[in-house]
Specification:
- This protein is α/β, with parallel strands linked by helices.
- The chain is about 35% helix and about 25% strand.
- The strands form 5 sheets. Strands 7-6-5-10-13-16-17 form a 7-stranded parallel β-sheet. It has a 3-stranded antiparallel β-sheet with strand order 1-3-2. Strands 11-12-15 form a 3-stranded antiparallel β-sheet, with helices on one face.
- A hairpin with a 4-residue loop joins strand 8 and strand 9.
- Helix 1 packs across helix 3.
- The N and C termini lie far apart (about 50 Å).
Length: about 250
């Protein structure tokens, strides 16, 4: 059996259970040496397919892609509402903020449009949210992506590089203490990275289903950001600031 075949079989084994021990993997490959299996595991870890945990357990890294916004808007509504309520409490009259695309960010939009603030955004859900708006809303230009109701690309990045924010609220697809903040596309990752670098305070609006998930492109590490979520996570809480509803 060639290395690729072994590695695919290991991944298949991990899909059926949350964690496995090395000796369990060895029992599946009785005629393969320990050193060879460890090389397979190191290769899988290098490619962000698995993760070694303390005690020798091996975990499959969950990867997430871009789910259409129409579908995301129907998922985990109670969690998103809790997160948006916590985020709204941190926004005060006179603030200049950036509000990202994403379903949780859209929920937050509804809660802050009556505040006397300035909102810069790439979230096109705004057009369907309200008839009466107190906030000053500035929509940044760029290429429209109907999948996530967002604009991004070269024009967006050029505009963002000339603006600075007191507070920014970013959506995420995956957040992990080791791999940081990840998103499905390079343009979205680049946009989030610029915003982070141009913000005094950065908040990640992240429901707990996204904890320890890995998407395609890394935007940045968890240093100097605050995760706002529906529940606490011990692993994330060790490496970054967290605000949790529960």
């Amino acid at each position: 059996m060639i290395p690729y075949e072994r590695q695919q079989k290991i991944l298949s084994l991990l899909k059926d259970t949350e964690l496995v021990k090395f000796d369990e993997i060895q029992s599946v490959f009785p005629h393969v040496s320990s050193s060879t299996l460890r090389r397979d595991l190191k290769e899988l870890e290098k490619n962000n397919k698995i993760e070694y945990l303390s005690g020798g357990a091996i975990k499959l890294m969950s990867t997430v892609g871009e789910i259409p916004i129409t579908m995301r808007n129907t998922l985990h509504g109670d969690k998103k509402d809790k997160i948006a309520n916590l985020a709204a409490k941190r926004i005060h009259d006179g603030d200049v903020i950036y509000l990202d695309s994403g379903s949780t960010c859209s929920v937050l939009f509804r809660k802050i449009l009556n505040k006397r603030i300035t909102i810069y955004t790439t979230n096109t859900d705004l057009f369907a949210l309200a008839d009466s708006v107190v906030a000053e809303v500035i929509i940044l230009g760029g290429q429209f992506n109907p999948i996530n109701s967002s604009v991004s690309g070269a024009l967006t990045e050029t505009n963002l590089r000339s603006i600075y924010f007191g507070k920014s609220f970013l959506g995420v697809n995956g957040v992990d203490e080791k791999f940081g903040v990840t998103t499905p596309t390079l343009v979205e990752a680049t946009k989030k990275k610029i915003v982070r670098e141009h913000s005094d305070e950065v908040y990640l609006l992240c429901d707990s289903t996204k904890f320890h998930n890995l998407s395609n492109v890394k935007a940045f590490d968890l240093k100097d950001v605050t995760v706002i979520s529906d529940r606490w996570d011990d692993s994330l809480g060790k490496v970054t600031s967290m605000i949790a509803a529960d």
